[in-house]
């Protein structure tokens, strides 16, 4: 179930203040500091990944936000003594204040995270009532700020953190959440991959008069209603394979228009199978054309190509290898000779660029 309170990736943030950055003696502040702080806690956070995800789904809250609050409040437990922090006033990973709430469960339990997440949600709802003209994402950010300092401390959006600890609470939590969201993919951050978008030839599929990134976005948008039928399984496979679900969605959009161009599950003159068009000439297709098994197989094929590109171009960055693997998914690793011309020889001479642009758009839709 997607987060119903807003898209954390669409929330503006200035990141950590210098006071917060000083916790780890960082010489930088802002978003870069928030990311570094979150990265430091990542190994400890892995201990709680499963329960964080379960609570997020149950409460329809982005697990990355729960993780970010755990980062901020207790450094994933490292700052606690016997499960307590804040001079004995706050309990657990998410620091439930006993002066206002009766803590439940063990300090690192599902019960604790559920209670704390429900407290966060109540603050978001209060902010909505207080600021009815604010957007969904603004209320989301306001609720995060209120989790630290209370609703009464939020007087305006521009000064949302003025009375929070470090004067940066929601900005820091948002930046950490965005980092955690991106770290779910171990192959790179799709939002950092450069792209020229769809070629004119690809754009003509939908009779578009534009090309480039805007065309890719429009093509993806035209597939969204169909794509949403597969959203839960796409996200499930993405998490299991540690690859961005938005990339899986983008390949489904590019390969089969979310199933719209298939005949009995087949495309490419009977050679490509399923939503992600597994080529029967090179692989034995598994599962039904729109099944989890099919999406798993295709995603594993993509991952193999990313690794091939890493071996072929050891000096390329993580994101460059990610893009190269996407290009290879269409035309093979041998076709990738240089970074700048990796798509020459792919269908439409734009495969990776189009998929990346679609993925960046699907990312804004909760994939």
TrEMBL record:
Keywords from the UniProt entry: Antimicrobial, Bacteriolytic enzyme, Glycosidase, Hydrolase
Protein name: Lysozyme g
Domain Transglycosylase SLT, first and last residues per copy: 52-164
Xref: Gene3D superfamilies: 1.10.530.10
Lineage of the organism: Eukaryota, Metazoa, Chordata, Craniata, Vertebrata
SUPFAM superfamilies: Lysozyme-like
Similarity field: Belongs to the glycosyl hydrolase 23 family.
Keyword Hydrolase: yes
InterPro entries, per database record: Glyco_hydro_23, Lysozyme-like_dom_sf, Transglycosylase_SLT_dom_1
EC number(s) recorded for this UniProt protein: 3.2.1.17
Catalytic reactions on record: Hydrolysis of (1->4)-beta-linkages between N-acetylmuramic acid and N-acetyl-D-glucosamine residues in a peptidoglycan and between N-acetyl-D-glucosamine residues in chitodextrins
